[in-house]
Amino acid sequence: MGIFDYAPAPESRAIVDIKPSYELFIGGEFVPATGGAFKSVNPATGEALAEIGEASAQDVDRAVAAARRAYEEVWSRMPGTERAKYLFRIARIIQERARELAVLESIDNGKPIRETRDVDVPLVAAHFFHYAGWADKLEFAGYGPNPRALGVAAQVIPWNFPLLMLAWKIAPALACGNTVVLKPAETTPLTALLFAEICRQADLPAGVVNIVTGAGETGAALVAHPGVDKVAFTGSTAVGRQIARTVAGSDKKLTLELGGKAANIVFDDAPIDQAVEGIIDSIFFNQGQVCCAGSRLLVQESIQDELLDALRRRMGTLRLGDPLDKNTDIGAINSAEQLARITELTAAGEAEGAERWSPPCELPVNGFWFAPTIFTNVSATHRIAREEIFGPVLSVLTFRTPDEAIAKANNTPYGLSAGVWTEKGSRILSMAKRLRAGVVWANTFNKFDPTSPFGGYKESGYGREGGLHGLEAYLDV
Ligand code: NAD
């Protein structure tokens, strides 16, 4: 422990105005939902924040019709230079309202303000800026001289990065000339609804962006709607499979960004302190609720003790608590269901014989919390080595040779990301070539950039988001 204690440093929530209830955003207006209502909960306290409208199949139908009208009458006819102006305007408003967005995201999701303020919201703005730049240059993107939009895009996103996933979906779709109907996750709808206000503030033509809130049923109605030309989904592999079945046999273009079980591989020549920071970032960022989290640490056997001692020491300094406190490293788990999933899988880890360790860590009484945890003595057959836990839980395995590291890293049905820690550049390149993962980070982890493509192999999905590659998903190529 450090010599000094930290005094509380809470960010004020006065900047956000959470209304008692929210409607759907269709055709540029907020309209009542006809499917009922549900509550969004503050995961740090368990208190209900607001009533959210549940979109029925008829509401989804109205939203798709509004998107179609906007596509045919306005957006597809507008030159790229004009579309770019709207995207630049949205990006600038996001920057102007960054604090409000960051505070609201922390309250609704449970992630620390340090992350929403320094990572999520700046990246959201960066994605809109990046794709604004592409809107009038599509003919230079390598997809032919006159690339055409697809039409109406149905977009379904998860709760772990509510605003960032919205940006990954909406920014390239609009830049390419599509209109969208987006469904945020049921536990984190508030920032998407604030984004709807931003669309109005930017004078975006009515119907170009529509937001329908609801749970799985609403999402299923949206992706199955016959008026949709493109489906983009980020979420679990199970739901991704279902969506692939729904879309099969239709003309709809589909991209899927699904789960992961990434290996973070540390060789004996890696700088230990730097690797420890990378491991902390790889599994405790956003409470480990990250599809590309480095949830399997593969450490070379000869440095296992030294590395794990340093990692345990560092974990002892992590501060868990109020997500709005600027000193908080680990916030709340997003929902009671997610907490139950993490609890069940970690209990299975112990039952299967792995050794569990957490630093001394007092959990708040209310809300949903899980202490940062590592498991050692993990074997490749344990559930905690195979299944995505989606929580602050690291499974440690060892290896002796690069070949063994590759075999173990690739021994997973997923393939979203991986990390390599070593001093040797040649080893980084040879490992990156052999790892079956969409993104390989070298001597760093969880770095995102709007210019860089992101996506998976195998059960982690197909298609790429981000950069030049991300345009392809929204163009008729
Ligand atoms: P989820 O699949 O349960 O839900 C994701 C979204 O799909 C939500 O909006 C949900 O309402 C909706 N949905 C649920 N059932 C549906 C159906 N039948 N048809 C259409 N939509 C439906 O996943 P989750 O628990 O919200 O998110 C966690 C998962 O998402 C993890 O497995 C994680 O790895 C994955 N994820 C992947 C990425 C990526 O980029 N690859 C990013 C974030 C999260």
Automatic annotation (TrEMBL):
Belongs to the aldehyde dehydrogenase family. The active site is at 257. The lineage of its organism: Bacteria, Bacillati, Actinomycetota, Actinomycetes, Catenulisporales. GO terms for molecular function: oxidoreductase activity, acting on the aldehyde or oxo group of donors, NAD or NADP as acceptor. Residues 31-476 form the Aldehyde dehydrogenase domain. The keyword Acyltransferase does not apply. This is Aldehyde dehydrogenase family protein. Transmembrane segments: none annotated. It comes from the Bacteria. Gene3D superfamilies: Aldehyde Dehydrogenase, Chain A, domain 1, Aldehyde Dehydrogenase, Chain A, domain 2.
